[in-house]
Amino acid sequence: MTRPHMDFALILRLHTPIIMPRAVPRLDILLQEAMSRLHQDWETAHVLPLARCDEAGVYCASQLVLAITPDASLTSTTEALVSTVTRQDLHLTRDCKTTIRHTGPDANRMTSHQGITAPFAIFYGRGDAEACAELMTLLSGIGREHARHYGAFSVERVQPDEQANWRLRPWPVAQSAQWEDTGHRFIEDHLMLNPCQASEPVMRPRRLIREVLHVR
Amino acid sequence: MYVKTAHARLHAATMMIRQDADMATVTPPSFACSACGRPWSEVEDPNQAAIYQYSSAQAKEYVCTACYTVRIPARHALGVERYSQGNPDNPVFAKLGMLPGSGGVLTAHNQLHLALPQGFIDKFKDGEIAAQGRLHRASSFDLLLSLLAEDGLGDMADGIVFVETWGRKADVLVANLTLTRSLSELWCCSESGAYCLDLESMIDSARWLVEQGWGDKADKPAFWKPIKDAAAGRRDDVALGKWAEKLGPDHAQDLLNRLPLDPYARTQLPRLMKLILPWVKGGDL
Question: Alpha carbon of B221 to those of B270, B277, B279: distances in Å?
């Protein structure tokens, strides 16, 4: 059964700090990853349960918005993760009879990441809200080091959005009408507008958007 | 000049270093530069790789000319850093990737400015970069603020690169080199990686503080302690209440609305406001 499209806010409860990657996580990119895991196919740009903005040729899907409550605000954490860089072996083949191997040493590193702790995260979209929520459950986390449990979340709820906040996403530079009345400042960058496409000049919101969420 | 990546800016701003370099390039056998990860068709000198080998016991890595630049001895651009075992016949020339305690800015005009401690200034005073007046005895943030005050960064939308610390780990530095197109998202690149700061909000807050007469108090770390502690997860409602009372309730909210949203940036307020406020008080920013 095809559910009708609606403007929605997908609210996620965060359990661990988010380590923000270079490009701010976006709902359509995360859903693409979820679909890729579902189909075990990372080569195809899957059809997502989101509406498309035909003028700009992009999905109606916002970037990550961090939500605070009166009791819990944004805080900064420093996550120090041990990583080991193993230098590759050197193979010297003098002739077909002789192979000399030298095993490279490990270069141990303690890599520090800046994490942000927030009680909730919100993604806005237009499309099949329930399908988007179901797909998101296939992901283990958002942001960097998600395989090490950073950015872990659970889907809290889906609620209607009356302000078309899905527009808080990168847009082609020429499509200024799409973001001018969002009330947010947009800056230039070079990002991909759709999953599995090359990056191009865009106008995007600032990396950190914060909203106050009223918890029921 | 508009560039797509930070490495393109690095490449354009450091041509003088590569010109007198003994850098042989080969056709790379790999898919991408092993330092920045860009495919060979997208680098500035397509399909030209420089070979880097950490030591004779490790494998060769194929890096693009932009990423290799930080490893090139800058004989004429900088000069002699030291002599090997004190022997004047064996000079060791300075490299951008081996400048601990130093920073720099690559402007949109493709100019390389270096922020160096006095020891390096003395060593490199005869080099080409010094001759162009681009060696500065300042911290990296002070250099950035001075270039901003003099309108020397160029059009930010074209992209600048801010290197907070060149350091000694060139592979981490070039792998994380990030372009800045707006002061509201200043990428601070270093040998530890890159992080983002909202410098524009900090300057706006500094201007407001000076206008309200709080300029002298705000460059003390104690002024920012409640804000910094709250951002670090050690919120003290009593201290925050006293802080707000001191400023006045409306003024406190006004200031909080101007501060950067990023809690990590708020933890850096004591350090950075101390650098920004003198420029604002002097009317330069």
Answer: 5, 13, 18
Classify residue A4 by burial, with Cβ atoms within 10 Å: 0-12, 13-18, 19+: exposed
Compute the average pLDDT of residues B99-116.
Answer: 96
**Is residue B222 less than 8 Å (CB to CB) from chain A?**
no
Given A74, A189, A207, which is nearest B181 (Cβ)?
A189
Using a CB-CB cut-off of 8 Å, the residues of chain A touching B193 are 111-113
pLDDT band for position B9 (50/70/90)? very high
Contact yes or no for B78/B145 (Cβ under 8 A): no
Q: Where are the alpha helices (DSSP H) in B126-262?
A: 128-131, 140-149, 170-175, 199-211, 215-218, 221-231, 237-247, 249-258
Instruction: State residue A13's pLDDT score.
Output: 96
ipTM of the complex, rounded to two decimals: 0.83
pLDDT, tens digit, 9 for 90 and up, residues A34-49: 999 999 999 999 999 9
Residues paired with A31 in a beta bridge: none
Chain A nearest CA to B59, separation (Å):
5
Asked if B193 and A112 come within 8 Å (Cβ–Cβ), the reply is yes
Distance of alpha carbon B1 from the chain centroid: 19
Residues in chain B with CB shorter than 8 Å from the CB of A63 are: none
| Cα–Cα distance, A151 to A160 (Å, whole number) | 24
pTM for the full model?
A: 0.89
**Span B129-148, average pLDDT:** 96
Per CB-CB distance under 8 Å, the chain A contacts of B261 are: 74, 208-210
Q: CB under 8 Å to B151, separation ≥6 — which residues?
A: none
Range B238-249 average pLDDT: 91
